[in-house]
Amino acid sequence: MTSEERKAAVKEFALKKGILIAVFAGVMSACFNFGFEAGKPIENIALQHGTNPLFQKNPSLIFILLGGFITNLCYCGFLNIRNKSYKDYFSVTGGILLNNLFFTFLAGLLWFLQFHFFGMGSSKLPAGMAVFGWSILMALNIAIANIWGILLREWKGVKSRTIIVLVTGIVVLILSTFIVKLG
Fold this sequence. Notes:
- By secondary structure, the chain is mostly helical.
- The chain has a domain at 126-183.
- The chain is 78% helix and 0% strand.
- The chain is built from seven helices and no strands.
- The protein has helices at 3-12, 15-38, 40-48, 58-82, 94-122, 130-151, 160-182.
- The N and C termini lie far apart (45 Å).
């Protein structure tokens, strides 16, 4: 980062806001898992109609993800109007538009697939153990995202102490997934 970029980044830094967002994100992540638990009656109906037990959580996903979609759509619409950025959707053409659409759909597909595969895996867990599967999913999300960040040099220019803390955190998260197996 140039010195101007560093000054701009520090200017935007707000510890209280960041902690509040992190706590809110953690609570909302847990709510996603609660959605799976609340969807048990839907799963039972699906199983009664011959659904493969491996895919029993998929009907619940429809309702869980629909709520998140509506919330995100409304908030993005609000931000587009407030920032007058809605015009940006119509100013992109040709290859850039196709590139943006491809990566948007790819991101959505990968986001959905993590929950699809979580549902498949949790269908094989004993009753009450899916919550541990959820913690493993979230830990791996954080670890893999940061490993990609390291590989793509998003952490370039930070102090070596920061990288040590980051790598230590990733190792702790990965090792924490094995603690469940030991218990």
